[in-house]
Amino acid sequence: MIDKDHPADFLAAGWHSGIKPEGLDFGVIHSLHPCDAAAIFTRNNFVGNPIIVGRENAASGKLQTIIVNSGNSNVATGPEGLQLVRQYTEVAAESLGIDPGLILPCSTGVIGRPMPADRMLTACREIPEKLKQSDFLAFAEAIRTTDAYVKMRGIELMSGGYILGIAKGAGMIQPDMATMLSYIITDVSIGSADLGRLIRAVANRSFNRLSVDGDTSTSDTFAILANGAAGVHVRFPEEAARMFAEFAHPITPADAASLPGMNGQSREFVSALMDICLTLTRLIAADGEGASKLIELRVSKAQSREQALKIARSIINSPLIKTAVYGADPNWGRLLMAIGKVFDEPVPIENLKIRFGEHHLNPDETDNLKIISNYLSGSEVEMEIELGLGNASETVWGCDLTEDYVRLNSMYTT
Amino acid sequence: MIDKDHPADFLAAGWHSGIKPEGLDFGVIHSLHPCDAAAIFTRNNFVGNPIIVGRENAASGKLQTIIVNSGNSNVATGPEGLQLVRQYTEVAAESLGIDPGLILPCSTGVIGRPMPADRMLTACREIPEKLKQSDFLAFAEAIRTTDAYVKMRGIELMSGGYILGIAKGAGMIQPDMATMLSYIITDVSIGSADLGRLIRAVANRSFNRLSVDGDTSTSDTFAILANGAAGVHVRFPEEAARMFAEFAHPITPADAASLPGMNGQSREFVSALMDICLTLTRLIAADGEGASKLIELRVSKAQSREQALKIARSIINSPLIKTAVYGADPNWGRLLMAIGKVFDEPVPIENLKIRFGEHHLNPDETDNLKIISNYLSGSEVEMEIELGLGNASETVWGCDLTEDYVRLNSMYTT
User: Fold this and answer.
1) B179 part of the active site
2) What is the pLDDT of residues A379-388, one digit of tens each?
3) I need a surface site. Which of A38, A53, A263, B69 has the fewest CB within 10 A?
4) Searching chain A, which residue's CA lies closest to the CA of residue B316?
5) Longest C-alpha distance within chain A, in Å?
């Protein structure tokens, strides 16, 4: 029962449960049988109650069902909030006839409001009924908060099997961690140890390189579930993970094809997974709260990856650079400022080369700044800073800062 | 010749030199005789050319004249930019009949534009003529860039002498360093070693606790010049500096009165200097680009000052908190988020106490959030976060984030 829209033996649903005043606010993805799974969670010291239960459940390497509500993040809701997660996962498990330890619960929305327990419990009892009309788009809709659009990408593998990624996220996003919520489901078969290596490797080259506002959510969750229904077996051994971590960024299909200890199916899977996560990362960056432009920034010719990343993050998080990009202003002085404020990584100014899209910065050249300003007025901006110090590079994604970010966040809640 | 508006034997002027299309853009403060002096500069790895010369000149502990232009920061202008600073300080020194090494040159404005050499040189030749009509307010006006208002504070000391502080700064300000430009002149007598200790001690409790946007200027300069004309001798010995660093924050007059190794005059001087620097810090925070509110944030009952400061900076720089304050939204969930994202300083959530002005946060209490929202709608917001872990505290200053910040910075230059 493989079809082209989702991996085999997965069902999904999204509906209005009454947590938000209107719109879809409750979503479920369910596999017909237990999956090998791996998940990574927010590094924020205050975590949502679902994260506490999700960490416990994901630790076994087996998950079967993802339950997400939007409209209330169940953070800072006290022992009652945690108790409720245990209660509704049990209700959901009972209604689905599975072990409650196979459920990954997630919540996103306002922090510090009591969860409407009755609505959560009612929704969990309704799951089997709702899954009868499986609808992945409704799930993707239901997990949105300030997202302007649904974020999904699926790839059918030539070697068999399908990978589907669904994410949400627009604000409170900083590259020290996974994105807000991001789920990958697939019908290939891959062991949970391999998945654990793979999820870290891929996150580190995608969601962990994404910044909207430098803030860090209390609810971030990135999970991969593989149910094996396609009968294709995939691996990601230690030696592949080591080489993956060494690749320049972004990782190309040719890179993936050179991974050791793996067959062609596995390489295709890793390459497709990376494609999906990069696509979702870019979709989240482009949909950054109030954003009018996606920014892709590469810092290259650094002494080390660490140096490249520190400088890239200083630039991608700088409000003065974000506002300049919004204004299509080739304000390279602000780039110098942001490079120079990484106090422990001094860079000789005479080595620097700056490129916007195809256009190398050369302020002495007539019309150079005008051409770059014109380039910056598009909806996707690509920048490269060459440090001239070595061969390491890093790429990060972010967005511009607009009046709409301020409007959205000064008016959203309470 | 002590009068009430400025310390004795100092002159000042500000005029239009043509660096900006209109308005005052060139300012000078000049002492009739050489001053003991200390200065601290930006930590940005790319510094303006005036900073290079200023560091050299301030190293001697003697300065006599401060020369500032606005409209062009002379950063990233190559060897010509540095050459020009050496040239115009020599011209100014010759016109004033002093040693060029006694001049502190400063520039503020756009980065990466060639300086108009002829205008700088002409202005430097005009200095003695312009100083004939001494005018400190014109100086304060001339150093403004995006500042909405002039920032000055003077205190006449009961024990004799006068301290005058003049600052500018509105954006590209982050608490890892001094403010943009800040000058203190006084006619007390204090040796440059004592001044060196004092400037660091005071900056660390004022300008270094200030954040507008987390960005770090390439031109920051904070200097103190003391010409001794009032005949009052002041000290700030090592032992006083050590105790000063231990005081809780902000430092009270009673704290200053307990400083060891000092007479009453010295204590009054230190207390007044601290008052001036705090006032200037608050003026800069309140005038943060586009800001509608000043935020004073105290993190208390921390295990260490370092812990308090890390958490305070995470909060004061968070765009989600800055926009919530703008919207008068008591969004304490975002406070939890910002406390929790200091990954290496975990704080038990049950210990936290949050206060807005006089109002303790208690979301369970009817109208509590409404009362706090009402408090947040004022133009000054005071917040305290008690961590419940120890006895250390830190105070930082910042401002809200508004649509005007975005407008100003997306349209300012090139």
Assistant:
1) yes
2) 999 999 999 9
3) A263
4) A215
5) 71
